[in-house]
Each structure stands twice: as structure tokens, then as C-alpha cells.
Automatic annotation (TrEMBL):
Key word Cell division present: yes
Protein family per UniProt: Belongs to the TRAFAC class TrmE-Era-EngA-EngB-Septin-like GTPase superfamily. EngB GTPase family.
Gene behind this protein: yihA
Native source species: Mariniflexile jejuense
Identification of the protein by name: Probable GTP-binding protein EngB
Alphabetized UniProt keyword annotations: Cell cycle, Cell division, GTP-binding, Magnesium, Metal-binding, Nucleotide-binding, Septation
Residue ranges of domain EngB-type G in the record: 22-197
Protein role: Necessary for normal cell division and for the maintenance of normal septation.
Cofactor(s) this protein requires: Mg(2+)
HAMAP family with a match to the protein in the record: GTPase_EngB
Alphabetical list of PROSITE patterns matching this protein: G_ENGB
Length: 197
């Protein structure tokens, strides 16, 4: 898929106020600093569509972007940032669970994980939660330019081993780098295929 247009639509923390209509949407979520904003900007060919986070965890909003006038890309807040207060964590959890529970337009989520790290409980718990709630998702490994190819394979294998303890199959996954555009075509082709289903 070629991205011809990418426009900011709205930010809010209330699922009921998200865009009406039936455009399919894809939500990107992951731990703060995982490289989510950089990935969104890379996918959409924009330098600063999503704000790269100088202060991780600050923006706790659901951000909708309209892509090619026929689907929505959704930038969800980063989770697991230690400096977020307990009360704001609660609010965050509430609207994230509401988003995944109520948003009928959601076709698939993309859970981003930094390819350099071993499987982290917070990411595994989140994927487990998505699975239990019937939310389809793929994993996007980020920052692949920071590892050699064999180290990437090893880290992905570690993930597979852990996930296959709980799941029958490994979720669909992509290996990406926003620095050198690895994985860009694959992620966009995947979304394109789902849109045309
Ligand atoms: P977010 O908090 O998940 O939105 O993460 P950002 O996109 O703001 O990225 C966090 C940090 O990781 C920034 O310093 C980015 O420059 C860096 N980063 C993001 N993606 C990549 C990548 O693919 N490769 C490398 N080397 N650095 C990245």
C-alpha cells in the first residue's frame, strides 16, 4: 500500500467520542519509549504525525489519524511508564479496556515490543489480556537496526518460546526499524490485505 495521505483527526480519552462511521481501524500500542511514534511516522511518511515522546507517558489520549481517506490509524498511549501516578494509571486502564471492549471498527491491534529486550511481563500480560478478550493482534518488534540479524532471530525465538507456553500458535509478527524502514512494506501490505478482505 502506498500512503497518499495521513491526517490527524482527533485526540480524546473517551471511546464514545472516537470518530463515528465504519472505517476500519488499526491500533498501535506498547510500552513508553518502544518506538511507537517513530514507527507511525515511518509508516505514514510523515516526520511528526505522531509526537515522539520527549516525556514518555505524558500524553494519555487516543489519537486517530485518517489514512488514504479510507482507514484509521490509532495511536494509543504508552503503558508501563513508572513515573505515571497511580490514579492516572487507573484512568489509563479504564479507557484502554473500554477502547478494546467497545470499538467495533477495530480490525487489529499491533503490540510493539523492543526487539532488544527479553519478553517482559507487562507486554505478555497485555497480550494475554487481548487474547482473553478476543482482540486480534500482531506483534511488531521495533528497533531492529540495533541488533545483528542472528541476535534478532534469537530474541524472536525467545518470544516464541514464552508465548507458546500460553498460546497454541505464535501471533503474527513483524520485525521493523524506523531508522532504516525495515518491515514498513510488510506492515502496510498486511493492513491493505485486511482492508480488502
Ligand atoms: P514512543 O514513546 O514509543 O512513541 O517512542 P519514540 O518513537 O518516541 O522513540 C523512543 C526513542 O527510541 C527515541 O529516542 C527514538 O529516536 C528511538 N527509536 C525509535 N525507533 C527507533 C528505531 O527503529 N531505531 C532506533 N535506532 N531508534 C529508534
Amino acid at each position: 500500500m502506498h500512503i497518499k495521505s495521513a491526517e490527524f483527526v482527533m485526540s480524546n480519552s473517551n471511546v464514545a467520542k472516537c470518530p463515528k462511521g465504519l472505517l476500519p481501524e488499526y491500533a498501535f500500542i506498547g510500552r513508553s519509549n518502544v518506538g511507537k511514534s517513530s514507527l507511525i511516522n515511518m509508516l505514514t511518511n510523515k516526520k511528526s504525525l505522531a509526537k515522539t515522546s520527549g516525556r514518555p507517558g505524558k500524553t494519555q489520549l487516543i489519537n486517530h489519524f485518517l489514512i488514504n481517506e479510507n482507514w484509521h490509524l490509532v495511536d494509543l498511549p504508552g503503558y508501563g511508564y513508572a513515573r505515571v501516578s497511580k490514579s492516572s494509571k487507573k484512568v489509563f486502564q479504564k479507557f484502554i479496556t473500554e477502547y478494546f471492549g467497545l470499538r467495533e471498527q477495530l480490525v487489529s491491534a499491533f503490540v510493539l515490543v523492543d526487539v532488544r529486550h527479553k519478553p517482559q511481563p507487562i507486554d505478555l500480560e497485555f497480550m494475554q489480556w487481548l487474547g482473553e478478550h478476543g482482540v486480534p493482534f500482531s506483534i511488531i518488534f521495533t528497533k531492529a537496526d540495533k541488533l545483528k540479524p542472528n541476535a534478532i532471530l534469537r530474541h524472536v525465538e525467545d518470544y516464541k518460546t514464552v508465548l507458546l507456553e500460553a498460546w497454541e500458535t505464535m501471533p503474527n509478527y513483524f520485525i521493523t526499524s524506523s531508522s532504516n524502514e525495515t518491515g514498513k512494506d510488510e506492515v502496510l501490505a498486511y493492513i491493505d490485505a485486511l482492508n480488502n478482505n
